[in-house]
## 1
Amino acid sequence: MLFGLYLHRLGKLNQSLEHYRIAEKMAPNDANLLYNFGLALFDSGNFSESYEYAKRAYASGMDFPALKRKLQKAGYWR
């Protein structure tokens, strides 16, 4: 997951998403992974999938509000 986050911060979104997908197979309920995956999906313009990951992250105990705010602003938080 950390390498996915690193790639995301470098702006290498496609590579970042690939690494998040791999990490998700190892830790499918990790709130931090789901949250950061959701942020990367949002930044890549995939708002619908970002919303799905956000729901899972918040259901798993994530409490950082930034992803939810971004999705609300984009009209995707339901």
Note: The radius of gyration is 11 Å.
## 2
Amino acid sequence: MSFDFPQETPLIAMLNVHYSRASDLERPDFLISNPPVPIESYRDSFGNWCNRFVAPPGRFTFGTDAVIRDPGTFEMGDL
């Protein structure tokens, strides 16, 4: 994701795989940013990984990349 911020902007991004699927990851899904900024990660009360950081003024890009093993099946409750 890319944004143009007019000033420093605090953000919370929730782009990581849920912790219940972490063992299915082929590699870690770290959040990266350009330009690089300090990122504080924590888990919320629902088990989601959250990343808190401050975007600098100007063009700012952040994202994550993941490869996950999944059998492709679904539970009937998902219909």
Note: The chain is about 0% helix and 35% strand.
